[in-house]
Amino acid sequence: MPKPVKLEVSRRRLLAAGTATAMVGVVPGAQAQSQPSSQKPSQRPTGVSFEVNGKPRSLQVDNRTTLLDALRENLSLTGTKKGCDHGQCGACTVIVNGTRINSCLTLAVMHEGDRITTVEGLGQPERLHPMQAAFIKHDGYQCGYCTPGQICSAVAVLDEIKAGIPSHVSADLTASPHLTNIELRERMSGNICRCGAYSNIAEAIAEVAGSST
């Protein structure tokens, strides 16, 4: 009677066999990933034209480029700051077609033909916007990092109130809102000041609001 054949499989042989089997399905994918990045459609630059601070600008950008990065990296408008990159701090606030937005949460290619205003477009040292001058007068900043976003947001807040746009704390949605302390703080709540200069910022905005009414 023949003796049974003993099969001895070492751990090393088993691992080697499993790796070889797995590589059969992996290699084609690896070859696809090794293609030059220039062949990937998502990375081909796209043309976009808009108006920035009163001047027409045309760019070639990656489809994934945010408006914030386009302003800072492509147009060298570094007044607009990159803070949290999640739309939570307001440091990147700019004004687009009269409405304030977080520029880190929107793509540059989405703003074809739009009118964009950054803090540089509001005023320059030799000719300050009234809001910029009020921030200086009332010391509405300390480190200054959030200040460009605070100023752009503050300018837009006054325009919102003039347009009769209510906020979450407006008691009557059909009546024209007034710049009360609670209205101001609610509307500016999306702009964080890590230095805590909130009372000075509120005083600066209130002064500009009073002088424009």
UniProtKB/TrEMBL annotation:
Highest taxon of the lineage: Bacteria
Keywords: Iron, Metal-binding, Oxidoreductase, Plasmid
Extent of Low complexity compositional bias: 30-43
Region (Disordered): 30-54
EC number: 1.2.99.6
Listed InterPro entries: 2Fe-2S-bd, 2Fe-2S-bd_dom_sf, 2Fe-2S_ferredoxin-like_sf, 2Fe-2S_ferredoxin-type, 2Fe2S_fd_BS, Aldehyde_Oxdr_Iron-Sulfur, Beta-grasp_dom_sf, TAT_signal
Ranges where the 2Fe-2S ferredoxin-type domain occurs: 46-122
Keyword Cell wall biogenesis/degradation tagged: no
Top EC class, one word: oxidoreductase
Molecular function as annotated in GO: carboxylate reductase activity
Record has Iron as a keyword: yes
Record protein name field: Aldehyde dehydrogenase iron-sulfur subunit
Native organism: Bradyrhizobium barranii
Biological classification of the source: Bacteria, Pseudomonadati, Pseudomonadota, Alphaproteobacteria, Hyphomicrobiales
